[in-house]
Each structure stands twice: as structure tokens, then as C-alpha cells.
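cron nightly-structures :: item 1 of 1
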Amino acid sequence: MNRHLQTYLNSHTEAAPLAVFRVFFGVLMFVSILRFWSYGWIEKFYIAPDFHFSFYGFSWVRPLGEWTYLLFGICAASAIMITLGWKYRLAMITFFLSFTYIELMDKTMYLNHYYFISILSFLLIFLPAGNYFSLDTLLSAGKVGSRKRTSKASKRATQYIPRWTLDSIKLLLGIVYVYAGLAKLNSDWLLNAMPLKIWLPSKFDIPLIGDLLGQEWVQYAFSWIGAGYDLFIPFLLLWKPTRTFAFVTVVIFHILTRVLFPIGMFPYIMIVSAFIFFDASLHKKVIYAFAKAVKYPKQLLETTTIWQPVSIKKYKISLAVIAIFFCIQLLLPWRYALYPGELFWTEEGYRFSWRVMLMEKSGYAQFKIKDGVTGKRFYVNNADFLTPLQEKQMSFQPDFILEYAHYLRDHFTAQGHQNVEVYVESYVALNGRLSTTYIDPAVNLAEIKESFTHKHWIKPFNDEIKGL
């Protein structure tokens, strides 16, 4: 097996697909950041709120006040550098750090595709995506370039790269799709068409298909087709006879998803990412078209040079890091199995597991503060501390509820109350079920410490959802 693995690691392929992927990735990331900025969301979600929910272990990651704009600016600038292939490795590291910091600033803003962008950008740090059709190779060649400088450039303008560099992106996309498909193999999704049965009828005003969305057979069809799409689309993209059909399906599926649901740039990211499955000949046509438009030297696209690592030791370390990275991606979504109870109810192990749009959950949470010395009690107006989006997300997610309870404890302690106790009257409805008590109202949340252990103070789920 080691011999076959070594042979695979030493095999090479055209660099054009990775270069095209780099360009499209950079453009989409720049547009995404510009879109977020133009909508005023930096101010609305990161600067204006007084309180921000944090990921466990990352409470030190906070918005930077007005400097948050600079953080977004750095992220946008690095996206432009990635597109151009200018100082690629530095740009990729900068983008990964700045984007991930933005993602960690407030847990309220968590989305699966933000997580996808973070881990994808981490992977791209280790790939030679800046060694073909890039400003780096152009600058190393010089504007006119003597034979000596052109020869130097040809060492950097590598037309052939390790095959695993492309396959690693395909593998990551496959994990995202297949895990999302496996997550849909549950009784709510397949047997009850939930939560699409709740969501689709509200889209009645969509031209052409709006009237159909209220029909039950359409809701079931969307559920089953969605599960089948996620499970099989990576394999259809890998197999050449079905690749074109699969890509058309990707485009239709994600455009329809974008029309039906407000999920930002994610559909376009997945469409562009699927393009990497096509043969290098198609990507070379794209590259040559771009090169002609920007007058990029053709000789730098036809070097026949094979990429070689600068340091064998560093290369082996990179391979080890990537191997560990994929082990984490394969295992992390299964961590929910370590917790008792229904995953959709407790959400312990729910994030970072590619469970995309699987539930409609709504909640109500009323917090009661008790002064442990005087016995004085009063209720909290959540609007005094949280934005509407924060309050909505907090109302049905237990780690949000606990963090907010701790914030209230500290706030009222600072106001002079002693031995502050925090209780919550919480009710949650899941996928069309009746609202029921969510958090044990007798538990003083001020005394509960956040950890990765099971949250025993969540009330048991009074139903069963079968599946993975």
C-alpha cells in the first residue's frame, strides 16, 4: 500500500484547474465581503451590539469596534491578492486568519458555508495555486525579461502540480455533500417532509413554481431529491460520462436553492467549486481566454515545468498537516454520537457537521434574576441586551442560553446584586411539533459551567426522530 501511495503522491497533473479555482475563489470572496459591507452588516452585527455570543474556547475573539472595518478591508485586500496570484501564500494565510476571526466574532452569525470557506482557505494555504497564471510568476519573469530572468520564471511558472492537490479539494467537496446527504436520512426529512413542509408554502409568490410549492407531493419530492442530490452528486461529477449532466444539475439545484432561501453567496461558491471536476483542457481554455484579455505572456503558460517543493522536510510536514486535517473533517461530524438525547433538540455536536437546513426551530426564553441575599426577583427584557437576531438564535440553542445567563449574572452582580441566580422559562418548537419546555426552570444557570459535556439541564425530547 505504501508503494501505491508513494506512486500517487509523486504523480502530476495540469495546474490550470487549480489556477482557475484560485481566481474564482478570490473573486467570490471579494464580492462576498463587499456585499456584507455594502449592506451595512458590519455595523449592524458586529459594532452596534453591546454583547456578542462566542464559541467555546474563543471568548477572546471579539469585534474591534471601528477597527472591525479595517479587518474586513484586510480580508477583502487578501481576496484580491489571491485572485491575482500576488504573494499568494501570504495572501492565503492572511485571508484564512482574517476571515476565520470574523467568523468567530459572534456565534450568532454562524453559517455552514462560512465554516466551509474557513477550512477551504486553510487547505489552500498548502496548495501551489499561485504557481500558474499568477502575478507572482509574471513578476519573476520581468516585464520584458532576459533569457536569464525568463529561465528563473519558468522554475516558478509550473504547468504540472501534484495530482493530490486537486484531489484534496474534490475530497473536501465530497465530504460536504455526502455528509449533508447522510444527515438528511432521517424520519423528519424523508417521511414528514420537514422542515420543507413549513418553508415552501411561504414561497407562493415565486413566479412559475410558487403555486406548486404548497402541494404536499412537491414538498416530499424536494426532500427526497435533496437527499439524493447530496449523496450522489460528487460521484457523478467524478465520473466523466455523467460530469456534464452533474454540473448542469449543480447549477439548477443551487440557483433554485438561492431563489427559495436567503443563503447569500453559498450557491455560487458551490457552483464554482464544482467546476474543478472538469478536465484540465477546459480550464486551459478559460486560462488562455483570460490571458489573452490581460495580455499575460503565453510562454509562462507553456513551461512544461513540474512543481517541486522548496524543502522536502516542509513538504512532508504539509502532507502530514493535510492528512490530519482530513481526519478531523471525517470524524468531527460524528461527535454527536457521544451525547445522549436527540441531536436536533440538544444541538450537541450539531455545528460543523454539514447538517444544512434540516430543522425549523423556534423558541421563547424569559429569564428571571434572583438576588441570593435579599431574595428579590425580577424578569429581564432581552431587548435591553440583545439584538432581534441574537434573541432569536438564543431562544432555542442551549449554549447560547447558558452564555447569556452568565452575562446576565455578571451584569447584575456589577449593579450591586449579590449571589445572583439566573433561571429561565424556555419553550421550543421543533419541525412543526407543539412548543414544550426546553430548559429545566429549576436549574440556576449562573452556577452551570460551560463545557463539552452533556447539558443535563435540557429537558428530554418527547418524540423520536429516526436516522443518522
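cron nightly-structures :: done
The CA atoms of residues 46 and 63 lie 6 Å apart.
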